[in-house]
Amino acid sequence: MAEKRPFDILNSSLNNTVIVGLKGGVEFRGLMVAYDVHMNIVLENAEQLANGEVKRGVGTILLRGDSVTYISPS
Amino acid sequence: MAEKRPFDILNSSLNNTVIVGLKGGVEFRGLMVAYDVHMNIVLENAEQLANGEVKRGVGTILLRGDSVTYISPS
Amino acid sequence: MAEKRPFDILNSSLNNTVIVGLKGGVEFRGLMVAYDVHMNIVLENAEQLANGEVKRGVGTILLRGDSVTYISPS
Amino acid sequence: MAEKRPFDILNSSLNNTVIVGLKGGVEFRGLMVAYDVHMNIVLENAEQLANGEVKRGVGTILLRGDSVTYISPS
Amino acid sequence: MAEKRPFDILNSSLNNTVIVGLKGGVEFRGLMVAYDVHMNIVLENAEQLANGEVKRGVGTILLRGDSVTYISPS
Amino acid sequence: MAEKRPFDILNSSLNNTVIVGLKGGVEFRGLMVAYDVHMNIVLENAEQLANGEVKRGVGTILLRGDSVTYISPS
Amino acid sequence: MAEKRPFDILNSSLNNTVIVGLKGGVEFRGLMVAYDVHMNIVLENAEQLANGEVKRGVGTILLRGDSVTYISPS
What we know:
Seven copies of one chain form a homoheptamer. Chain A has one helix and five strands; from the N terminus they run αβββββ. The two termini of chain A are 21 Å apart. Chain A is mostly beta strands. Chain A has one helix at residues 6-13, and strands spanning 17-22, 27-35, 41-50, 53-63, 68-73. In chain A, strand 3 (41-50) and strand 4 (53-63) form a beta hairpin. Chain A has a five-stranded antiparallel β-sheet with strand order 4-3-2-1-5, with helices on one face. The radius of gyration of chain A is 12 Å and the shape is globular. Chain A has a single domain, classed as SH3 type barrels. Chains in contact: A-B, A-G, B-C, C-D, D-E, E-F, F-G. Strand 5 (68-73) of chain C pairs antiparallel with strand 4 (53-63) of chain D, so a sheet runs across the interface.
């Protein structure tokens, strides 16, 4: 049966790899180890992507929810 | 008789294919399996579109309501 | 006598054709079948316009109030 | 004696011609027949301007307050 | 002794000439005859500036606080 | 020992020269004589900077907190 | 065990070097000596970066939370 609440996908993606898109088009991919109701998200072993290619490694990163556009389990 | 509340269209589109437009012009098409009052939306089997053409498959994706511009049943 | 409240024009345009402008300059034209206090709007038989010309048909579409710039009865 | 509250100018401009500037630089000129505390504004016999020249007639138009940058009695 | 609250400068500039900068870089110069806590501002005998030069006269104008970036007594 | 609250730096910079960055990349440098909890800031003897160079003197200026990106003691 | 709340990473990064990304793509790197719930952040010995290279030293700087996009321990 389908999920009913959007935040369920965040919970089920915890400790899994996700791609997060930010306003302006920047994407980060990494292990999601924390999130909150504002969609603030912490990734570990994260990489910044440009056109789907790895641009640079950034280690641990806190993405501010206000800047988040989408989150996709990888 | 015409629908009276905009969110009715979200409810009637649940588990159907929709196109979602985001700020900046990006579009995603997929099966809408969840939404909430903030217009946070979860699509499954989703594809990112560019000028109406499929740019890439993205599987499951949570689109943040604050970034959503429009939603259209496909 | 002149109307006194801006939302009166939404009510009087219900089930009539309107043009809705969004942030970024995109316009949609269609039959307005629903709206709410946030200016979320549902159009049916809608078309996306570019410079006043029809760019594509989009059927039914929910436009998020936060993205709406103007609404004009057609 | 000088006016003391910004909204006084809206009230005194009711049923007069005004120019309204929107975010992004678009301007509309028309007869202001309604406004509210959010600066939502309704113009009648309105025209869209580009660099001070008439670009097109738009008849009646509701401008969403959130998009309004300035209002000037014509 | 220095002023302690930013709005003091608005009060002391009432009925004096100010330059107001808006988001996007547009500037207006005129006699400030009204303001409120949202920084909505009314200028009289106002001129729109471009790179410090007068672009056009606009008479009386209400600038929406949400669009205001800065205000400087002239 | 390190400061614990971001606003401490505003308080300790009062009546000192600061550089304030605004959205869009504009910078102003001047003597900070007032601020409030919204980060509205008043500078005296202020100069607008472009790429670190003085572009023009602006005297006293009120910078609206909503537009402020950063503040740095000079 | 993984952290559960995004702000934990701010607390654990206090008095350590972080990179902070702002809207528009500007980055600052420095010692984080203060933060609050709005993600207002104070860096000491800070440098502005452009494409990962040091563009200029800025000493102490208060970054306004509303402008912050991401924070990454260095």
